[in-house]
Specification:
globular, 15 strands, alpha+beta, four-stranded mixed sheet, seven-stranded antiparallel sheet
Length: 432
């Protein structure tokens, strides 16, 4: 097996181990993975230092009453979910008769209020509680200062940011059952599109684990191409993360590349992604998140606010636990003033937003690097050679093999049926 195919195979096997499949959400027959003991607790209560530590602690951002109300709603939704009839078993020969939703999942596996994701259940939050959650978050001085620190930074040549506040997005309950494995190390986004928050809803829950954070030599790719506004330059380059934070692609702030007339920096999203998160592909990746973000255990209503580029992992929930782990997850998206008008496209529509389906983990990096190499070979007219050597057509071959096996089984059953019929006829002849 080629090294590339082996890397892909092992990566997906590891991902499947650390993030159990939908059918194993209740952990039947699943190997329990134990994380190495965390060596330290990283502490930061200063919003001005969020870019140094990658996160800031949130102390009592929710009142006990609000945390209790959110917890009660989560318990009720999980209870209703578990009371549904068991899902129909699946085999290769007999697919489920249940209808399929837009994500390709059987609707038996989910309800409008709660679905299975990664190593947890994800539940929606009622509009009434969402309103109270937003009020509490906006009242937090730590939250307000952290958002201003990250998105209100002064740019080159003293340019002020057009940052004007934030919007609460994607509030959701994450419920981790006892015996659930930890997440694989991952970042929530490839650039600083938002800040994400985690607030605990029960006392004594284990904190989120994080990897050491340093933005130095990490060119977090934005994937957004902009034009230098220096009339003598005008080159197109990928917008740097620090400029994305200030929203220069959305507002009337002028942007220049900073090296007009010098060396052109090529657009290399995949390369920047690897340079920023390449540690996820190393042998030590599983040990990266060796520290707690905050204290080892949290009180209800407390948690963290973090940059989305910080590599972290949920700790799972040990089988010895007597209750599920309940946390509220949310993102805060910056909004800007002086938004410029763009012909044929509203500026708000090109704002890069957090996407829960696009987390940065080892399989994601491998996929992006694979696509980059495919493009290189395609440019030389050698994509078919590359696909053959990399085994990228194995999926099609496997499907053909399954179809052939099915056909052979049908033929064998037909032959066996004929033999039984002839045997029965011979028996009848002997008796007569």
């Amino acid at each position: 097996m080629s090294s590339l195919r082996l890397a892909l195979k092992r990566s997906m096997e590891d991902a499947g181990t650390d993030t159990p499949a939908m059918a194993s959400k209740k952990n039947k027959g699943m190997l329990q993975i134990l994380l190495p003991e965390a060596l330290e607790c990283k502490r930061n209560n200063d919003p001005a230092q969020i870019d140094t530590f990658g996160f800031v602690e949130l102390a009592s951002v929710f009142t006990p009453e609000l945390a209790g109300s959110i917890l009660s709603e989560g318990r009720a939704k999980l209870k209703a979910h578990d009371a549904r009839p068991p899902r129909e078993p699946y085999t290769r020969d007999k697919q489920r008769s249940s209808p399929i939703n837009g994500k390709g999942k059987s609707v038996v596996e989910e309800t409008p209020d709660i679905i299975a994701i990664s190593n947890a259940m994800q539940a929606t939050v009622s509009p009434e509680l969402t309103k109270k959650i937003e009020e509490s978050i906006r009242a937090s001085e730590t939250v307000v200062k952290s958002m201003s620190t990250v998105f209100g930074q002064v740019g080159r040549e003293g340019r002020t940011s057009n940052y004007a506040g934030f919007e609460l997005e994607t509030p959701k309950l994450l419920i981790t059952r006892p015996g659930s494995n930890p997440q694989i190390p991952h970042a929530d986004d490839h650039c600083t599109s938002c800040l994400f928050g985690i607030v605990h809803l029960r006392d004594g829950q284990e904190s989120t684990r994080m990897a050491p954070y340093s933005p130095i030599n990490r060119p977090y790719p934005t994937g957004i191409t902009v034009q230098c506004e220096n009339p003598s330059c005008g080159r197109h380059e990928q917008l740097p993360d620090e400029a994305l934070r200030r929203g220069v692609h959305l507002t009337d702030e002028q942007w220049t590349c900073g090296h007009c007339g010098g060396h052109h920096i090529p657009y290399d999203f995949e390369g920047d992604l690897l340079r920023s998160f390449g540690e996820l592909l190393t042998e030590t990746a599983v040990y990266m998140c060796s520290a707690y973000a905050g204290p080892k255990t949290q009180n209800a209503g407390c948690g963290l606010l973090s940059l989305p580029t910080v590599v972290h992992r949920g700790p799972g929930n040990p089988a010895t636990s007597r209750d599920c782990r309940y946390v509220l997850f949310f993102t805060l998206r910056p909004i800007y003033c002086n938004v410029k008008k763009i012909k044929e496209l509203d500026a708000t529509k090109i704002h890069h937003r957090y996407n829960p389906d696009l987390q940065i983990h080892a399989p994601c990096l491998l996929y992006n690097q694979l696509n980059k190499v495919k493009q290189i070979y395609r440019g030389y007219g050698m994509e078919s050679n590359f696909r053959a050597l990399a085994g990228l057509d194995d999926g099609r071959a496997a499907e053909n093999l399954r179809e052939e096996n099915r056909r052979l089984r049908e033929k064998l059953n037909k032959i066996l049926g004929e033999e039984k019929r002839h045997e029965a006829q011979r028996d009848m002849s002997r008796k007569t």
